[in-house]
Amino acid sequence: MTVSAHSDARSGISVARLAERGADLLRQEDPDLHAILDRENRRQARSLVMVASSSVVDPSVLACLASPVVNVTAEGYPGRRYHAGCAQVDEIEQLAIDRARRLFGAEYANVQPHSASVANELALSALLRPGDVILGMDLHQGGHLTHGSRASFSGQYFQAHGYGLDEHGRIDIGAVRALARRTRPRLIICGATAYSRTVDFAAFRSVADEVGALLLADISHVAGLVVAGLHPNPVDHAHITTTCTHKQLFGPRGGLVLLGRDATTPVPGGHGSTLAEAMQRSVFPFFQGAPAVNVIAAKARAFDRCATTEFRDLAARIVDDARALADAFARFGYRVVSGGTDNHIVLLDLTDTGLSGLVAQNALESVGILVNKNHVPGDRRPASVTSGLRLGTNTLAVRGAGPVDMPTCARLADRVLRAVQPRGDRDFHLDAGTAEQVSADVAALCERWPLPRYPADDLACTTPAWPS
Ligand SMILES: *Cc1c(COP(=O)(O)O)cnc(C)c1O
User: Fold this and answer.
1) Helix (H, G, I), strand (E, B) or coil at 12
2) Where are residues bearing N6-(pyridoxal phosphate)lysine located in the sequence (predicted)?
């Protein structure tokens, strides 16, 4: 333990020098790659990002990702590694685990999953056998690929049924209950990727208990609101909770598994293993090998930042921004799915506008406004085209934009969507006047809202941030 205590103040400087050295070497030896990465920095600083899954990691999180701790092979868990040289790595992983548990009030945390999709994969495989029945939110209604879509392992290895939204664009728990009674799933998955309303985890648990199913809550999209107390916490309602760490936790790309009061519950048919033991084994050695320790360090750093009052304020701004954004779009005549939002997501139904989601997304991107096309209830277009847009306020809020700024953001998008002339579902024409004016307004806004704590010279843009 004392080994790390000997590293003195100079080590902090050497980390900074390493990053500088690396950037110098990259510039000298690989100018092509360096130029691309450089352009990407500028694109991020100069785009109005309203992608719902977007986030901005803090420079201190980036420093963890770039740490030489990445050189360490560390199969196993703290105190039980299969390799030597893991003293610091053990401390790092334990810190990440402790912080995650404290943040979510969890009994158990596993910080090794490489992504949320992988976290779902290993949760499903810890609990189920191939062919078991699962119930998840339909992909086209707002669910995630890993919740039972035929395009993913979850719909191929398991017999998946999907629930959806009612005519008001909300989850109808009565319909979920009826479907569960009929299909008798072994596992129910709740949580979504494109759903703007609060998920009632307690109600889902009562359905699961009634039909003898386990409950998995995937909070990838709303984890930050859960931390801030602005969305119910599923950790003690679900048997297993999963999340990614790179959306609303503003951390590195990665996954996290949490267990609450059911951590010591035996896995049905699991030969006496508890859920915690089954999860531990499912991550390593069943699915993954050595963990990405630099990413775990970055997770620990992000969790620490999420525990601050500043983060609570940010989460509150994210929700306030989303409400203001939804209101603004509604006032400009757009159909907001479910009539509004409880979280950071605003779903627009473009069916009546004559624009496909794809045309809208591409037209907006051409002026530096980033959103993503998304299926809306009753959508007849394929997933690659769709009839809707999904917007989110994580990045706007972290860059300092508040509710009073949302009408401006909505108006910029509206100017483009009004002016764009679709040529079918994929191509479009946008007049040069509108494109130039809106691009200039977007650039001005981005200058007003720099990436937080990033060096300001990233904004000094000499080349266009996005292709015209
Ligand atoms: C984004 C998302 C995931 C996937 O996360 P990755 O880490 O990119 O695999 C899983 N579940 C939900 C609900 C998501 O929104």
Assistant:
1) helix
2) 247
Find the 117 Cα to ligand 1 centroid distance in Å: 6
223 and 349 share one domain: no
242 C-alpha to ligand 1 centroid (Å): 9
Q: Find where tokens 């319909």 sit.
A: 175
What CATH number is associated with residue 430? 3.90.1150.10
Annotate 390-401 with b (16+ C-beta within 10 A) or e (fewer). Answer: bbbbbbbbbbeb
Q: Which residues in 250-291 belong to E strands, given as ranges?
A: 255-259
Task: Using alpha carbons, select from 44, 50, 45, 60 the residue that is nearest to residue 394.
Answer: 50
- How many separate domains does the chain show? 2
Q: Is the peptide bond before 452 cis (omega within 30 degrees of 0)?
A: no
Parent domain of 169: 71-306
Reported as a single tens digit per residue, the pLDDT across 88-125 is 999 999 999 999 999 999 999 999 999 999 999 999 99
Residue 292: which of 121, 98, 89 has the closest Cα?
89
- Kindly report whether the global pTM for this prediction surpasses the value 0.90: yes
3 state DSSP class of 192: coil
Query: Degrees (nearest 5) of the Cα angle 358, 315, 54?
Result: 30
Residue 245 Cβ < 6 Å to ligand 1: no
